[in-house]
Every structure is written in C-alpha cells, then in structure tokens.
Amino acid sequence: LDDLLNAGVEGRAVLVRSDLNVPLDGDRITDPGRIIASAPTLKALAEAGAKVIVTAHLGRPKGEPDPQYSLAPVAVKLAEVLGRNVQLAGDVVGQDALARAEGLTDGDVLLLENIRFDPRETSKDEAERTKLAKALVELVGDDGAFVSDGFGVVHRAQASVYEVAKLLPHYAGTLVEAEIKVLGKLTEEPERPYAVVLGGSKVSDKLAVIEALAPKVDTLVIGGGMYYTFLAAQGVSVGNSLCEESMIDTCKALLEQYADVIHIPQDVVIADSFSADAESKIVSVLEIPDGWMGLDIGPQSVRRFAAILTSAKTVFWNGPMGVFEFEKFAAGTKGVAEAIIEATGKGAYSVVGGGDSAAAVRQLGLPEDGFSHISTGGGASLEYLEGKELPGIAVLEG
Ligand code: 3PG
Fold first, then answer.
1. How buried is residue 361: exposed, middle or buried, by Cβ count under 10 Å (0-12/13-18/19+)?
2. CB contact at 8 A, 288 and 239
3. d(CA 396, CA 169)
4. What is the pLDDT of residues 237-254, one digit of tens each?
5. What ligand 1 atom has the least distance to the C-alpha of 153?
6. Among 19, 71, 122, 375, which residue has the most ligand 1 atoms within 8 Å of its CB, making it the best to mutate?
7. How far is CA 126 from CA 59, 108, 157, 392, in A?
8. What is the mean pLDDT of residues 91-96?
9. What domains are defined for the chain?
10. Of all helices (H) and strands (E), which one includes residue 296?
11. What value of ipTM does the predicted structure carry?
12. Residues 94-102: what's their mean pLDDT?
C-alpha cells in the first residue's frame, strides 16, 4: 500500500476489494472482526485524500439482488469503525453506483452493494467476469487504482479479486501484506514441535490441508464434526453424528499412514438432539448410542490435546472442536483455545485461521491478544498452507 500512497492518491478514485463477509444474525453482526481488520487500509487511503470505492461480498447470494444479503448492516458498522461517513450504493455497478462514484469528493468512502448480486462476479466464463471488472474500472476512471485487501477471498478467481487487478495499477493492502507475512512464517521453517489443530464440520473441506500438512507437522489434532468420519473409518458406530460416508476410506488411509502424527479424541460429549438445551452426556468414543450425536470433544480429550499444545512452539488452529455456539458444547473449543493461549504465553508462535475459530475466540470471551495472529482468511489461509497458488495474490505479483 505504501507504494500507492507514495505515488499520491489525493483526488484519485481507488477501488478496494475488502472481505467484509461477516456472520449475521438477522441484520445484527455477530462478529465484526473482518470489518475491523479491513479498516486500516481504507482509513489510510481516505486520510490521504483518495475517493475510496469499496467492493465486497456477503454470503453466497444467487447472482441477483437479495435483501437478506445486503451490505447495509456492514455499511453502518464500517462507518462506525472508520469514524467517517460511508455511503452505500443501491446497486453494484449500476446507475446509483455510477452517480455516487461521480459525486465523491476527496476522502469520501463509497461501499458498493454486494458484488455477488451480479452473476458475473462468480461466473465460470472469464469473458463475463472481465465485463464486470470493466464496469468496476469505469467507476474509478482512467486515473484509478486497485487495492486488493480482502485476504479472505484471494483464493477465489473472481471478477473483483482477479480480473479487475489485470485492468488497473494494482497494490496489496495492509491486511493482505500482513496475512501473507504471518502465514509465511508457518511454511518457512516453523519452530518445532509444530502442532496443527483442525476442527469444523466437513472433512471434505479439510482433506487437502490434512494431506498437505500431515507430512510436515509433528502433531495433527483432529476434533469437531469432521472427527466422526474418522471414527466411522475405525469401524466404530457414530450414532446420529455427522459423517461423510464417501470420505470414510480416505480417512482410514490417513489414519494408517499418519498414525504417529494424527491425534483424535477418546471421549466426546453427546446429545439427543441438535439444540442448545439437548440432553447431553460424556461418553467414550466407543459408546455412542444409536440416536445420539457427538457435539463436542470430551474433557479427557481436552486434557490430552492441551498437553500436546502447551509444549508446542508453533501452532496453527482452524475449526472449532464442537458446537461452541451452544454453551453445553463449547468446553472443547474453549479448552483447546486456552491451551494455545498458554503455549503463546510461553513463547510459541500461534495462528488462528478461519472465520469460525476466530469468531469462537471472540464469542467465548477469550483474549484476542492471547494468540500471535488471528487470520481473517478461512479457505484462503488453508489453501495458502496447502501450498496452492492463490489467484488474488498471483495476479498482484504478475
Ligand atoms: C470466507 O468467508 O472465507 C470468505 O469471505 C470467502 O467466502 P466464500 O467461501 O463464499 O467465497
């Protein structure tokens, strides 16, 4: 970003792709982390006199305007965080966006409506994506620039992330720069022991990262909903717990190949239904009755995982250990997070990756500064650690 600021932005329109994809409960933002993390770049540009045009997505609307995915609540929060007025365009690149862009004065901030209301954003057809990118370029004019600051979306080859960077002088924002620096520390000679904790619901989402990391780390701790597919792979009955049948063979092979590295729970907290006030009990993983489902790891597993984590020198954590949104099933996630905080206090380098685990830290009232870094990227940080090329980063380097 400094390169752009040094080149001078006063009076210039600058398009910024931010990741403002925050969790909502109705129109209430339950975790504003990504908005707060996006603020420094926007603030720096506005203070330097740029006309700042922000584009972002929220959720996965179906390529057409849908009020439940409007960025309206985000615009309100962004204004509060920036301490300046933020206009929200009524459309993405239509009449209202154009008129508002033309009316901007130095230091103004305009947020375009959810970029995914336009089907071209996520189109598989590059020509379509390029058309949308050209429409975005029109908003900033000939003298414009593009700043890529949405780290959470750099793994997406989408119009506002990828194609637009090819059409305008482009720069990385401070958030993207910081995230790459931090995650780079995990891939370049991490201090050992290096422990990775993976949770979350779907094993299919995490398979690639497990395969990439298992040979590189000292310990891979697995919990969360995805654990039950590993349990099923051991021939154990999982009751009504989440289980991806099609992944069972792969999980079995991973458990065999990385028996020394992969650590899985021995006890779990089970429930008779998926609800906050379900009846619950702690059982061995070998004793999940029919009709019950595992919603958290048990206390014995927490103790064992904590022993591993508190002696690690590098820790990466992605994905909750249980349904932390329900108090009864939050202890596993909390216990693991507290162990990582303890390790960090003893000098370990710890990174929390992923929207859900970052949200868990804040919602469980854990200190954010207890970790070395809380990444804003979910899929993006996993793909970075897998060693995949991230299109939104590659295009900036090209
Ligand atoms: C995320 O939540 O990880 C990013 O905002 C990307 O969202 P997506 O997975 O819908 O592309």
1. buried
2. yes
3. 9
4. 999 999 999 999 999 999
5. 6
6. 19
7. 22, 32, 9, 15
8. 98
9. 2-174 (3.40.50.1260), 181-386 (3.40.50.1260)
10. strand 293-297
11. 0.98
12. 98
